[in-house]
Design brief:
five-stranded parallel sheet, about 40% helix, single chain
Length: about 240
């Protein structure tokens, strides 16, 4: 059964191009031209991944992402956001709302397929069952790798897939400095030029959810010019 990708864009030419390349790669493609229709398809068809334009009629990409991440039946759906706007703020807002990745228009269709492949591969790895319960614990942090749940000092926190994978990488490598490329490979399955700013946004979002004071982090330290690490005092 081919995996299904929902492509949402009000530009029919873009959907046609993306559909063609995805279908050549063995995917089944669903299409929507506005945010309201996209939500209907998401709820009815439960696609494996969504490629979502930022600027849409009726409901824009930001609102669609917000609704998807707030719906427990849809929240785990991987989202790649498309944006024709080059400002970093647009990209950061999309990631802060819970998009897993973004692609700036104009784009290379081969790159879109590569990103889809990598994100779905990462998702499959995240969902692999284990014979024994897998729980990681460190200084008040608790991750259940099978249930994909996170707690901080007994308090449940809702993490996106990328945030969860980042925190898992930190706890599995306590006190060890992980480069940006290391973290990108572990969190989304690939690294590419220019993704560093996106990683910084994911880290900032993660800190907001787990740190007592995100501006003075207890857990995740910045190693300037290199990457990040779990504070050695948390080990």
């Amino acid at each position: 059964m081919p995996q299904r990708i929902l492509v949402v864009d009000d530009d029919l030419a873009i959907i046609k191009v993306v559909r063609g390349y995805l279908e050549q790669s063995g995917y089944q493609v669903l299409a929507a031209y506005d945010g309201e229709t996209a939500l209907h398809i998401l709820r009815r068809e439960r696609p494996d991944l969504v490629i979502l334009d930022l600027m849409l009629p009726q409901r824009d990409g930001r609102e669609v992402t917000r609704i998807v991440r707030a719906d427990q039946t849809l929240a785990a759906t991987p989202i790649i956001m498309l944006t024709a706007r080059v400002e970093d703020t647009d990209k950061i807002v999309g990631l802060e709302l819970g998009a897993d990745d973004y692609i700036t228009k104009p784009f290379n269709a081969h790159e879109v397929v590569a990103r889809v492949n990598a994100l779905l591969r990462r998702t499959r790895l995240d969902q692999l069952p284990s014979a024994t319960p897998r729980v990681l614990m460190c200084a008040g942090l608790r991750l259940d790798l099978d249930q994909r749940t996170a707690e901080v000092n007994g308090r449940s926190v809702e993490l996106t897939r990328t945030e969860f994978n980042l925190l898992q990488a930190f706890i599995e490598n306590p006190g060890y400095t992980l480069t940006r490329d290391d973290l990108l490979e572990k969190a989304v399955g690939y690294a590419y030029e220019g993704m560093g700013r996106a990683l910084d946004t994911h880290i900032r979002n993660l800190r907001r959810k787990i740190e007592p004071d995100p501006d003075d982090p207890t857990y995740i330290e910045t190693v300037y010019g290199v990457g990040y690490r779990l504070n050695k005092d948390c080990v």
